[in-house]
Amino acid sequence: RLGGSLALPFGALAGPIASGPWRVPSSQSVNDRIPHRVHEGSATVFGGESAHQLLIETWRGADAWRVGRYVVMPDHIHLFAAPTGSEIVFDNWVRFWKSQFTKRCELTEHRWHADHWDRTLRDGESYEAKWDYVRNNPVRHGLVKVAEEWPFQGELNHLAW
Questions:
Q1: Rounded distance between C-alpha atoms, residue 123 and residue 5, angstroms
Q2: Collapsed DSSP state (helix, strand, coil) of residue 54
């Protein structure tokens, strides 16, 4: 299912979930500490190394789901996640880590959009295809020439099939 939220029971998940983007509303102020060029008028909370590291720490602490590969863009995030056996549904986990990030974030004006997009991936081939698309987001946005140059991406956990 594309768009909206997908809250399947834990046992119904065949594999990881691709999720994002989580955007900062465009009315928020621009963070001038971002080291990379961003599109004029976009909100830029996520582009700096300190925000990147805080997201990693937050995801590691929100351990009901494991974050696999991810890309942090200046104004949104893409990630892949898989359940750890907890009964916490994906939407609740997202709300939790967003709240934890916000509590620890130095930008008091930061606000999350209330919703997100997610999709259950059914096989490793789908994961690789979605990852290829997501990791090239910085290239499509003109931030780098090749995806490998984008510093705000990684893989916290290997999500096996």
A1: 20
A2: helix
Terminal-residue alpha carbon distance, the chain: 20
Sheet holding 17-23, edge to edge: 118-120, 17-23, 76-83, 65-72, 153-155
Dihedral angle computed from the Cα positions of residues 84, 86, 87 and 92, in that order, rounded to the nearest 10 degrees: -80
Query: What is the chain's pLDDT, residue by residue, as a tens digit (161 residues)?
Result: 222 332 322 333 334 555 554 443 333 222 322 233 223 333 445 657 888 899 999 999 999 999 999 999 888 889 999 999 889 999 999 999 988 988 888 766 667 777 788 888 888 788 888 999 999 999 999 999 999 999 999 999 998 86
Measured CA to CA, the distance from residue 156 to residue 16 in angstroms comes to 13
